[in-house]
Design brief:
This protein has 486 residues and is an alpha/beta fold. 59% of the residues lie in helices and 12% in strands. The protein has 2 domains: 2-218, Up-down Bundle (ABC transporter transmembrane region fold); 240-482, 3-Layer(aba) Sandwich (Rossmann fold), CATH 3.40.50. Helix 14 links the parallel strand 9 and strand 10 (433-437). The structure holds adenosine-5'-triphosphate and magnesium ion.
Length: 486
């Protein structure tokens, strides 16, 4: 859990949720079981074998030698089993991964499944993954089913041998009946732990496979790491500068998503970015809290490279509302106070008021204490967005980032939100630098600087009036959206 929390966005892009679930439940369980079993059996077994062998040697050297003949047989079968079973357990866990991934995706998207009448297809997909898991499990269970009887057979052959050899010796007067019976007991005690070991082989092999899978997660290096020696950051002002920033997503064919982006956002300024879908607006702002690290150039906060700042300091001075407004199951209050659990009710209400969410929150059956469904499903898209904005505002960030956060809010509400934000930020004792991503040009008109993005390049930047003069793309967007107005 702690490791996964340390993952960066690009680590998370690479792993499947289903895999992480299998690894943190089933794999952990397997490993845990073997640790528990080992504590008792594995520590006791060698002592048993040693003690029984010594006693057997003392009682009858002949029978002890016979037992020695069985040891390599047992050792070899155990070795064979371990080598055959180990990869099989890895396959089983991989099938379980796939099953969990299908299940997880299916549950998360169950509404889409229904909307497109694909229930049968999804059941088939699940059934398929399920069948594959079953086939692998059956194969391994067959192996286990052979192993134990084989071990019992070997033990019983040992007893037969002891009775045969010991019986002959007794008749010849070389051994007493008591010695033979005692030897058989010692023999059983010496071979029994080996059988137990054999019985444990399958959980051991399973745990070995599982442990390797857990280690894989534990050994993943977070691609964004805190600096070894963090630069001191006395008081964040909020001046953000992009210096020839380039960015390429890992495994994305090496095509850069951002190229040579340079601009300066002075503390307290509002920077808006505008551009077609897929032009890199979200990518640009994800670089500021180091969700991803730049692949070229650098970003500075108050003149210090953000990679040299403690991650927690950097991120806690940023309030962000991501493009996809994700809430957690819980009350409205818990969600808004997520970044600052100690916030007072008044502060929470103020944040909601600025985000234009207070009206609808108060109309909910229990106000701020209303429980909303998981991922906020019981709210409308625009309501979720406004709560996400309130959540970002409540931390009183030095840098506020809103990624298309009002796309599902009507224009009238959006204008009120802008005004409330302006009033709040102008009024605040400390300045706040604002980054807004927007589709609507009306949202960005008053920004101090507008970045016009086109396929990862900042093709132009400036204020609204400057851009109207110098940027054809900007003029085009402007005319297409507000053509009728002046
Ligand atoms: N996690 C990711 N891994 C790989 N490529 C990505 C990832 N996220 C985005 N991209 C790619 O990067 C490009 C820019 O995406 P980005 O999300 O920044 O666009 P955007 O301008 O925010 O678009 P929109 O207006 O639709 O939100 C797109 O071509 C997209 O396919
Ligand atoms: Mg985006």
């Amino acid at each position: 859990m702690r490791k996964v929390q340390s993952f960066s966005f690009s680590n998370l892009d690479e792993v499947q949720t289903g895999q992480l679930i299998t690894r943190s439940t089933s794999d952990v369980h397997m490993t845990q079981m073997i640790v528990m079993m080992s504590l008792r059996i594995l520590t006791r077994a060698p002592i048993w074998v040693l003690g029984a062998t010594v006693m057997l040697l003392v009682t009858s050297t002949r029978l002890a030698l016979m037992m020695a003949a069985f040891v390599p047989v047992i050792a070899l079968s155990v070795l064979w089993f371990a080598r055959t079973a180990r990869p099989m357990f890895t396959w089983v866990q991989q099938r379980l991964d796939r099953l969990n991934t299908v299940l997880q995706e299916n549950l998360a998207g169950v509404r889409i499944v229904k909307a497109f009448v694909r229930e049968a297809h999804e059941i088939e997909r699940f059934g398929d993954a399920n069948r594959q898991l079953m086939e692998k499990t059956i194969r391994i269970m067959r192996l286990v089913a052979i192993l134990l009887p084989t071990m019992t057979l070997i033990l019983n052959l040992g007893i037969i041998g002891a009775i045969w050899l010991g019986g002959g010796a007794t008749l010849a007067g070389e051994m007493t009946v008591g010695q033979v019976v005692a030897s058989i007991n010692y023999l059983t005690f010496a071979l029994f732990p080996l059988m137990m070991l054999a019985a444990m082989l399958s959980p051991i092999a399973a745990a070995d496979a599982s442990a390797a899978r857990i280690l894989e997660v534990l050994e993943t290096e977070p691609s964004v790491t805190a600096p070894a020696v963090a630069a001191p950051l006395p008081d964040v002002q909020g001046r953000i500068a992009f210096e020839r920033v380039g960015f390429t997503y890992e495994g994305d064919g090496g095509e850069p998503v951002l190229r040579d982006v340079s601009f300066v956002a002075e503390a307290g300024e509002t920077i808006a970015s505008l551009g077609a879908t897929g032009s890199g607006k979200s990518t640009l702002i994800h670089l500021i809290p180091r969700f991803y690290d730049v692949t070229e150039g650098r970003i500075t906060l108050d003149g210090t490279d953000i990679r040299e700042l403690p991650l927690s300091v950097l991120r806690s001075s940023i309030g962000i509302a991501l493009q996809e407004a994700v809430l957690f199951g819980g009350t409205v209050r818990e969600n808004v106070a997520y970044g600052r659990p100690d916030a007072s009710l008044d502060e929470i209400r103020d944040a909601c008021r600025t985000a234009q969410a207070l009206n609808f929150v108060e109309s909910l059956p229990e106000g701020v204490d209303t429980v909303i469904g998981q991922r906020g499903v019981t709210l409308s898209g625009g309501q979720r967005q406004r709560l996400a904005i309130a959540r970002a505002l409540l931390t009183k960030p030095k840098i506020l980032i809103l990624d298309d956060s009002t796309s599902a809010v009507d224009i009238e509400t959006e204008v009120r939100l802008q005004d409330a934000l302006d009033a709040l930020l102008a009024d605040a004792a400390h300045t706040t630098t604002r980054f807004i991503v927007a589709q609507r040009i009306s949202t960005v008109l008053l920004a101090d600087m507008i970045l016009v993005l086109d396929r990862g390049n900042v093709v132009s930047y400036g204020t609204h009036s400057e851009l109207l003069e110098k940027s054809a793309i900007y003029r085009e967007i402007y005319v297409s959206q507000l053509g009728g107005m002046t």
